[in-house]
Design brief:
Helices cover 63% and strands 0% of the residues. It is mainly α and 87 residues long.
Length: 87
């Protein structure tokens, strides 16, 4: 038995209702352009300043973390080389 959703004639017959008249077609819709207000522009400028500050902090912390990892790695390597060469 074939399900009703797979029957194209049932789909065609079920979806013949017209759209309500209170919704205009897409071509006739008019949208008012939104103008940027001072408050909106200030908020955007504040968000950009915050983003720049956060990116700077992330870069500084990443640099410090990498520097610490490099120092620890070099120290471990020198201790390993010194331990192996003394034998």
């Amino acid at each position: 038995m074939v399900p009703a959703a797979a029957n194209p004639w049932a789909i065609i017959l079920w979806h013949t209702a017209r759209m309500p008249d209170d919704i205009p077609p897409l071509g006739e819709r008019r949208y008012e352009p939104r103008l940027a207000t001072d408050a909106g522009l200030e908020f955007i400028m504040w968000q950009i300043a915050k983003l720049r500050r956060d990116l700077l902090h992330a870069a500084v912390w990443a640099g410090l973390g990498l520097a610490a990892a490099a120092i620890i790695g070099i120290e471990m390597w020198w201790r390993y080389v010194a331990a192996c060469s003394s034998n």
